[in-house]
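S.,

Sequence below, as promised.
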Amino acid sequence: MAVLRFHVPPEHALLTLADASGGLSALFDFDKHTAHHVAWLAEAAEAFGEAISTDDDEIKDARAIANSQTETVRALRTEIAELAADAEAQLPDGVSYDVPIVTAQPLPTLPDTLGPRELLHVEKSFKRGMATHLLAATESLGPLAERMATFEDEECRQLAERIAAFVVAVRGGG
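The prediction came back faster than expected:
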């Protein structure tokens, strides 16, 4: 028998797994979306050579924020994946989860030319996609955190707090 980190009450296992699945899918999409746009921007910067300055404080601040968010998302994603596996192992007899735990949205098509309009398009696409994927994650993770906060398992309650903090950070504190 496998050792479980998260002890999910069997009556909550299916919904916990479904919410974890929705959150994981959105967080993986966030990561893929970010990498897709960063790759395009890196190609654009290389094409411009010295024309783009990375010494700009605004660019440094934006990169620091993006790196911090990315690391937070990846750490949370790892824990939610563990939760999903544990919830699946604790499904009641006769209950199964027959859909993929992680599904992927297609990446947006980015321009194959380079100019001011294309750069603006990529910037807008990047911002819109980040917001879309992070908000989509909160749609599943918010209810997941609320449910897990009621479980008797301390690991579940601690993860619920981390998830809730992430949801508040994405949606704002109001």
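The two ends are 44 Å apart (CA to CA).

Coffee later?
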